[in-house]
Write a structure and sequence with these properties.
By secondary structure, the chain is an alpha+beta fold. Helix content is 40%, strand content 21%. Strands 2-1-3-4-15-14-11-7-8 form a nine-stranded mixed β-sheet, with helices on both faces. The radius of gyration is 43 Å and the shape is elongated.
Length: 388
């Protein structure tokens, strides 16, 4: 009985200690939505925030300042008011936030439709350029004559990510609405280049997420003409892509928005066509804040490491080439030195021969001189004797 009582007391004390320890609530990632010019509630945005509860939400409808966004893990930029172009100061605030590292920036663009959509393109590209991205919103519109919601401009985009981002398509078996979208292009070394929905890519670190079907085409409404595509060109075109950048940063460009823009992606049916917009947008948001899939896929990190090692190998090969060149130069100098030594040895040999010859001649002259001297001495002696 005493043992049972003792155990009960100990258990009670443990429970009291546990209850005294404050429970630390895990902080949710912060997603800041810049809904530039939004004046009233947007039902699609509301649904997004209500249904994606894994993150904290913050909505900015007016001027963007660094203090407003500095703690964000992900920023989604949507120009609601087509006449409200982003300012240099606001772009600088976004860049300062992005430069912290580990950030995901989702910029939404639009087509060049004459109804005012084209006014969103400059702000989109201004932000992309400021943060150093190669992604661009080309000045055109993509239509799809095959995959659409009753009209070619109501594109039912196909979620077909490149293999590295395949997880973004999990649970998204149906298309996603891109209502009157623009087209994604890339800007590399001062040149606009197309980013088609299939095939080779102009740059390595850009990955497709959503595309048109093969029934896609390039349409034109307002000048200027598209930079990377030909009007009337047909095929599959990229509507959404991601770029992996330095400092663990990600830039996403979609040429339509998850909300607003006449009708955003967050919709499950449009003109009697079933869609998977909510599931898709949720995948994008959770991935962007690191709660779904690999935020930076390991294969990309491995590829980066391989590239780094290849760079080091290239440096070593260059150094080896330099050493070999130096060795060859020294070998050439050594050969020249050997040739010079050989010439000098030949000269020394000739001098030695001349010296030996000179020594022999000296001995002969010396011996002859001695004999002559003896003869002269005898003659002198005889002569002196006769005089006596």
């Amino acid at each position: 009985m005493r043992k049972i009582l003792t155990s009960f007391i100990i258990l009670s004390l443990l429970l009291l200690l546990i209850s005294a320890v404050p429970m630390v609530k895990a902080e949710k990632p912060l997603v800041v939505v810049v809904a530039h010019g939004l004046l009233e509630e947007d039902i699609q945005l509301t649904y997004m925030m209500v249904n994606i509860t894994e993150v904290e939400w913050k909505v900015i409808m007016e001027t963007i300042t660094y203090d407003d966004i500095k703690d964000a893990d992900m920023l989604i930029y949507v120009q609601v008011d087509t006449g409200l172009e982003i300012t240099d100061e606001e772009v600088a605030a976004i860049k300062k936030w992005f430069d912290q590292g580990g950030k995901t920036l989702w910029v939404t663009g639009d087509s060049d439709y004459k109804g005012g959509d084209y006014l969103r393109i400059p702000s989109t590209n201004k932000i992309l350029e400021a943060v150093g991205s190669v992604l661009r919103n080309d000045h055109t519109e993509a239509v799809d004559r095959v995959s659409n919601c009753g009209a070619s401009y109501r594109v039912a985009a196909l979620v077909k990510p490149d293999p590295e981002l395949a997880f973004l398509g999990v649970g998204v078996g149906r298309p996603v609405l891109f209502h009157g979208p623009g087209v994604v292009a890339v800007y590399v070394n001062g040149e606009w280049k197309p980013l088609y929905g299939t095939g080779d890519k102009p740059v390595e670190n850009v990955y497709r997420i959503a595309v048109t079907s093969e029934g896609g085409a390039i349409a034109e409404f307002v000048e200027p003409l598209p930079h990377a595509y030909e009007v009337g060109e047909e095929g599959t075109f990229t509507l959404m892509a991601a770029e992996f950048m330095d400092n663990d940063n990600i830039v996403i460009l979609s040429v339509e928005a998850p909300f607003d823009h006449y009708r955003g992606m967050w919709v499950t049916e449009y003109h009697e066509v079933e869609l998977d917009g909510p599931a898709f947008v949720k995948n994008i948001v959770l991935w962007g804040v690191g709660l779904y899939g690999e935020r930076i896929p390991s294969v990309l990190k491995l590829r980066e490491k391989v590239s780094e090692l290849e760079g080091k190998v290239s440096e070593l090969e260059s150094e080896l080439k330099s050493v070999k060149s130096e060795r060859d130069s020294l070998a050439s100098e050594l050969d020249k030195a050997k040739s010079t030594i050989s010439d000098l040895e030949g000269q020394v040999s000739e001098l030695q021969t001349e010296l030996e010859a000179a020594k022999g001649a000296q001995t002969t002259y010396l011996g002859g001189g001695i004999v002559v001297g003896l003869i002269i001495g005898l003659i002198i002696g005889l002569f002196v004797g006769k005089r006596k």
